[in-house]
Design goal:
The protein has 314 residues and is of the alpha/beta class. 34% of the residues lie in helices and 28% in strands.
Length: 314
Amino acid sequence: MPERIAVGVVGVGYLGRFHAQIHARHSNVDLVGVVDTDRAAAEEVAAEARCEAFCDAADLLGKVDAVSIVVPTSAHLPVARLFLEQGVHVLLEKPIADSLAAAAEIVAAAEAAGAILQIGHLERFNAGVMALAQRIASPRFIEAHRMSPFVPRATDVDVISDLMIHDIDIVLSLIDAEIAQISAAGTPVLTDHIDIANARIEFANGAVANVIASRVSREKMRRIRVFEHCRYQSLDFAEQQLDVAYPQRRPDEPWPEIVTERVAIEPVKPLDAEIDAFVRCVQTGTSPLVGGAVGLRALEVALQVKERIVAGQA
């Protein structure tokens, strides 16, 4: 296992800058360079991270073992393909692509080259989500809310691809069954894209997930509740706090008392954990937690949600 790997970051906007900073301080990474079509932005982040600045992603070829790609979704296919075809391992921000065809091509390129492809669904690396996943046995109903005030960023995509896809991915990871039906509603509010959406996802085993996402809310909320027989668990993503509620029988009482306990969790920074997991996969050759096929399935469901909303508006 190599002690250190050479890494580059392509795209150093709001999120890409964080990727560069985390790679720069990682004990097993040599950050070779950052790339951005905005030379000033590339040079500024390169100065912070003490690496080279480039304006063309191809300039990293032959210099790196792996890259973080944090460019607009519409550019994911050409940029990811550039590196994957050369056997360079890729951490690709979510969503995997802007179409199923592009996503399938990215996954195929990784498989053909034997390169690691990890998709940036960073909530999977939230300590609360990991604790929740370990405690789930047979979920019957899931309710997820992901609400944010409006910010003029990521407005090139709808709220489904921007925010809801996180919870879609988590729901798919918790319910081991095929989807039977999807119904959805939503509307643009401030942008030309859907800004608030509600999706009901019904599974073949009878489980149901109700997922709500908004980027035009007054307050920020990141919560998920998972109901099972005689138990439900409630997670606050931001605080990484997991509460478990269950019935406790009382002597001579017809109904039990509902008892709530907080699970002891050591919070982590999800993006740091995600990047660290990617580095370890590259070093050891192991498969990532959120591989290309996982990202493709999340995108497929997200696009189906959008289709249902558009059809309802026709």
